[in-house]
Amino acid sequence: MAQIAVVPGSFDPVTLGHMDVIRRAAKIFDEVHVLVVHNPDKPPARFEADERVALIHASIAELGVQGRIEVTTWSAGLLVDYCRQVGATVLVKGVRSGEDVAYETPMAIVNRDLADVDTVFLVPDPANSHVSSSLIRQVATLGGDVAPYVPAAVAAALRA
Ligand code: PNS
Question: Ligand 1: does its nearest atom lie under 6 Å from the Cβ of 45?
Answer without folding.
Answer: no
